[in-house]
Amino acid sequence: MNAKPPVSRHSGARRNQRAESARDALGTPTAADTGLPPATTFAELGLPDELLTAMTDLEVTEPFPIQAATLPDALAGRDVLGRAQTGSGKTLAFGLALLVRTAGRRAEAKRPLALVLVPTRELAQQVGDALAPYARVLGLRMAAVVGGLSMGPQTAALKAGTEVLIATPGRLSDLIARRHCHLDGVGITVLDEADQMCDMGFLPQVAEILDQVRPDGQRLLFSATLDRNVDQLVERYLDEPVLASVDRARAAVTTMEHHVLNVHAADKYAAATEIAAREGRVLMFLDTKAAVDAFTRHLKSSGILAAALHSGKSQPQRTHTLDQFKRGDITVLVATNVAARGIHIDALDLVVNVDAPADPKDYLHRSGRTARAGNAGKAVTLVTPGQRRDVNKMMSEAGVRPTVTQVRSGEAELTRITGAQRPPAAKPVQTGKRPFRGMGTQAPKENRRAAQARQAAEARKAAQVRKSR
């Protein structure tokens, strides 16, 4: 059932024309191009009764736009090239079609029938969590193979047989090389967040993997952004795909407020600390693992329930930290870009870029952690004077027009926008003698002569103040 309908092969010129058409279509809002009419309800899609019951039990009753646009064609076996904002329901858009078209078949040992490729461990976990209830009711076995975890349980799952495999390219390539997995039975292949896989340097591995699946199989490519980095995949592996783009290529979510807060460099981390002390959860992004760890230690010493998330943490540590954040056991998650894609946190209403991203795609994916599935949220970026020009350019390229406000720590305007408040610890414990100013910004140690000169200047200034009274 999972082989695509017969299609004719095309010349190189026709493939280039198709790729150019894909670029044009994805630059403007559009429904599925040359595809079936969008679905208005899940019931009209002919889904199995047990699947519809499970969806109703989980309160999945009406298709989101990307699901309505792509499911009819995906269920019919056509290739799909889809783009929609993060949090818009992309996982079920490809997941329901993949599960339904695989149901009723049994995989041999080490030979999965359907494959979902994702760039990160976190996204693999999210996809698995989202599809698991539906896979169970359809009698499908599902496994994930990702880096950072022991190969033993993963190879055991493959040997036992799994119909649906969720994988990161690196780990899957390793398992294939060791003959623990064979892809010649894969009839449906999904690339989720394909642009990030290209950005992370996975394109050669992804191409090598796609070369091993069934050549007549179906391919579904979904992402929050689609740009020229994925042209090679579109040209080489997708046959006359249905093109679906249900939001603007560079647009902001309408339920999201974007704010640029201009701060003095010396006040940046004080303002960030007060934001972290707000009521409710907040996701804060910094550029490096070292900065994340240092700022997290500072927040903890200020009495704030914070935890760090970055690629230097083991997978069990990352999973535990995310679970704590989802439950509310910690209120501040400080992260690098590892959390910018594939992390779904219900009812998260504030994302803060303590360090402003340089790439507009990074900004869209960071901010996309809030205002998901129609909920409201705010994306706040702290900007120092020297960063303003670069941030303005980045925002313009992202298609975002933020509200710009000059703020200082302790001021009402900062509280109005972010809910900032004084940290719980009245006298925060410092890791050193000087207050935390961020990575690489601590003042250099004074020698004896410089210290004496500074003290004399302070004494003169104090004397002038006394005379003026």
Automatic annotation (TrEMBL):
It comes from the Bacteria. It is an enzyme of class 3 (hydrolase). It holds the Pfam family DEAD. Residues 267-415 form the Helicase C-terminal domain. Keywords: ATP-binding, Helicase, Hydrolase, Nucleotide-binding. InterPro entries: DEAD/DEAH_box_helicase_dom (IPR011545), DEAD/DEAH_RhlB (IPR044742), DEAD_box_RNA_helicase (IPR050079), Helicase_ATP-bd (IPR014001), Helicase_C-like (IPR001650), P-loop_NTPase (IPR027417), RNA_helicase_DEAD_Q_motif (IPR014014). Signal peptide: none annotated. One of its GO terms (molecular function) is helicase activity. SUPFAM superfamilies: P-loop containing nucleoside triphosphate hydrolases. A motif (Q motif) lies at residues 40-68. Residues 40-68 form the DEAD-box RNA helicase Q domain. Its EC number is 3.6.4.-. Residues 1-38, 418-469 are annotated as: Disordered. Residues 71-244 form the Helicase ATP-binding domain. Belongs to the DEAD box helicase family. This is DEAD/DEAH box helicase. It comes from Streptomyces laculatispora. The lineage of its organism: Bacteria, Bacillati, Actinomycetota, Actinomycetes, Kitasatosporales.
